[in-house]
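Quick one:
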Amino acid sequence: MIRLCHIDGCDKPARPQRRMCQAHRTRLRRHGDPNFTQWGSADEFDVELIVTERRPVQGLTRLERVLVARGLTEREVPSHEVARIVGVDPRTVERWRAKDRQAA
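Output:
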């Protein structure tokens, strides 16, 4: 008998001798919340400030990084500069841009 994760809405199998799946266990250990996700929140004011000032900032969530990259792309900033500001690899910026082009 396979036990499922006890977190609501999760249909993954629980780890052996445990009550939750590996993903929820990791989130609980790292963030104290099994339903934590970095995509859920972005401060629009901070995003706009970073886009206008073009300065590197630490501690951005994943969603904020993507939004800053989109804002800088609209201002035609080169990918290597966007990567420096956001703190990711230039290839990541190129992937984000390609994904946005496909969606449009």
